[in-house]
Structures are given as structure tokens and as C-alpha cells.
Amino acid sequence: MNKLIQKTEKQVEDIFKQIDEIELTNTERVLKAFSNHKISEAHLNGTTGYGYGDVGREAIESMFCELFGTEEALVRTQFISGTHTISTTLFGILRPGDIVLSINGKPYDTLDEVIGIRENPSSLKAFGVTYEQIDLKEGLFDLEAIKERASKKDIKMIIVQRSRGYAFRKAFTIEELEEVFKAIREVNSEVIIMVDNCYGEFVDIKEPTHIGADIAVGSLIKNIGAGIAPTGGYIVGKKHLIDLISDRYSAPGLGKEGGATFGLNRQILQGLFMAPHTVCQALKIDVFASAMLEQLGYETYPKYDEKRSDIVQMIKFNDADKLIKFCQAIQANSPIDSHVVPEPWDMPGYEDKVIMASGAFTAGSSIEISCDGPIRPPYIAYLQGGLTYASGKIAVANAVKNIENK
Ligand SMILES: *Cc1c(COP(=O)(O)O)cnc(C)c1O
Questions:
Q1: What pLDDT is recorded for position 116?
Q2: The pLDDT value given to residue 47
Q3: Burial level of 97, CB count in 10 A (0-12/13-18/19+)?
Q4: Considering only CA atoms, which residue is closest to atom 5 of ligand 1?
Q5: How high is the pLDDT of residue 349?
Q6: Is 342 in the pocket of ligand 1 (CB under 6 A)?
Q7: Cα of 264 from ligand 1 centre, angstroms
Q8: Does the Cβ of 219 fall within 6 Å of ligand 1?
Q9: Rounded to two decimals, what is the model's pTM?
Q10: pLDDT digits (tens, 9 = 90+) for 349-367
Q11: Which is the closest atom of ligand 1 to the Cα of 233?
Q12: Which residue blocks in 188-306 are alpha helix, DSSP H?
């Protein structure tokens, strides 16, 4: 095992150097945002009640504008999850009669009932918003079909999911996103382009809003909270759009003036400070896992040396037992609930049983190491996160031991 670890680390040396470059660039950007905003102790405190005049919150939102290159930002602990943040964005902007188009096939599963792909009396569909999608072509954007549809100018909003999430496809790189945004803009200058940026922040040195997205949305208990922010979500983009969303986040007329932070500004700021580092630790764990499992003959996506645009590593086990044992070992090597043995269970909304390993300080956080997969062929594990490379390396090495020793 030690030989295999050594060989793997030798193999990934150059990739780790590239990841270090990304960490350095993004750390410089973040540090500059701190200094530009003269962050001091006063910003670390919070407000209660209505939360008016929260200087920490206002500075955080201005820093997000700087980091994402946008006019406005809404960064709030009142968002309970990524899904809630995305839902608020869609309901904030879309009106009855509008059409929303997904250009990467079906969006993330939790959005099914938000959009009305699965019936729900509170969905966008129930409010008269029409959903359309263009499927990927061999895993990539179908530029021809997208241009053709966008040229008709009856679409209000185009939505794109950067990360693979739980889909069997690659995460779209900033270059690929830029190409499709340009194609859209050639035929339509009006349509609002929104990116689900979950799992994507700080994986590259640019964000979707730097290359043409009007709006980007994500969760604070993934990349950009670095395992320190305990809850929340963010939305960055054009001011008139954030204004609409802010009135849906609070109430029409209230906008983003209020919203108590309960002393959480400290964790959000510290998370933001740590995020370029933590995201790169997670990337290194992915690369290590990809290289090691590939050496043992498993198919991995992405390959260890492929360009990444999210923190998700897929491993194809072709064997239910191996998938389960791998996830169980990841759980056993997590800091919280290491004594708990996860079993496949019937999760609401899923057809097959799912196994989930997550031993996190923040419940459900997937910037902390987690691993899951549906119990169906070809038995793919989705590995994500990891706060420190060393702990991730130990977890992955022990998980490999657990499947190879049977
Ligand atoms: C995590 C995630 C979401 C939102 O999920 P929550 O569990 O509600 O935070 C949406 N899209 C993608 C691609 C994600 O990874």
C-alpha cells in the first residue's frame, strides 16, 4: 500500500504544482478583497432583529462583487441550501408566461420540483413559467441547437450547471462556458444567462461571471465557505437582477436592506479567506484518488491529469459491494461519526437505493469529505471535498484497502 501511495504521489506531482498556482492566484485575489475593504474586527460581529446597517454583511457582499466581477451580490445566511438559493433566483426573475431554457440537459435533481419537471403546486410551472431543455451532445454543449433556439428571442433566461453534480458528464470549464456564452450572445443580447456555480468556485482563476454570465449562484457549505461558514448561499450578478431576487428573498419593497447575521460574519469571512486553499486541498484529494484507482484498473472521471472545473471525482466500480465498501471506509475515516456504518437506503426522489458517506462538522457539507452513489450499474461513486489533503489521502488509501482486501 505504501508503495502504491508513493507511486501515486510521484505521478501527480506536476498536477499538484498546477493546483498550487491556482491556489496562489485565488489567494492573492481574496487577500486583495480583504485589504480593499479594510476588513477589521467590527466586520466580524453581527446583527440581530431586522439586521439593518450590518457593516460586516455589506462588506462581504461588496467583496463577493469584487471577486466575481459583478455589480451586486446577495450573500445570506437565510438561504438554507444551494437549492433554496437557486429557487429564489428563478422565482425572483421569472414571471408568468416566461420561458426558461436549460442547455445542459436536465438540471440538478433537487430542482425538479422547483421547475415543475416533477409536479408540485408551488413550482415555476404552476405559476405559468415554461421549461425547456437542450440535451448535451456527446457530453458537450449542442452549440447549433442552442444558437437556433436562442435566436428566437422568446426565452427569458438560460440556465447552465457548471458542475457535473450527479450526472455522468464532465464539468464545464471556464473556456467551454465562455464559448457557449459567446454563441448565445451572437444571436441574442437580451436573454439572461444564469450559472449554477455549486462546486465550481475557486477551482479555476476565473468565475462564470467574468466571462459573460449575468448571474451566478452557489452554496456557502460547499467551496466558498471552506467548511467554516455554517450555512447560507450567495448570488452575484447584474444589479437589476439582484434587486428583483432580493425582493423575493425578503419581501417586495424590503430588498437586501435587512437580514440579521447573528455573529456569523466571522465564519463567512474566515471561510472566504480559507476557500482558495481548501478548494485546492479537495482538488488534490480528487487527483490522488483518480490516479490511485486508475492504477488499480478502475475507470475514473475525470482522469487525474484532466482539467477540472468542479470538486467532484467519479469512480466506476462495476460492483455494488465495492461501491458500498468504499463509501463505508470514507465514513470510517471521517472526523465525525466515524463509528457509523452507512448502508444503502431508499432516498426520497430516487429510484434506486443510495449510499452516502458524510462525516462532516457542518451537516450535509460537501466541501468536507463525502462520498455517495446510487446502487445501480455501473456502480459509480461520487467523491467530493476534503478539508485537508492529508486526511483525504488517508481516507482514500484506507477506502482502497477496504475494497482490495476482500
Ligand atoms: C449542491 C448542488 C446544488 C444544490 O444542492 P443543495 O444540497 O440544495 O445545496 C445544486 N446544483 C449543484 C450542481 C450542486 O452541486
A1: 97
A2: 96
A3: exposed
A4: 82
A5: 64
A6: no
A7: 22
A8: yes
A9: 0.97
A10: 677 899 999 999 999 999 9
A11: 9
A12: 239-249, 265-295
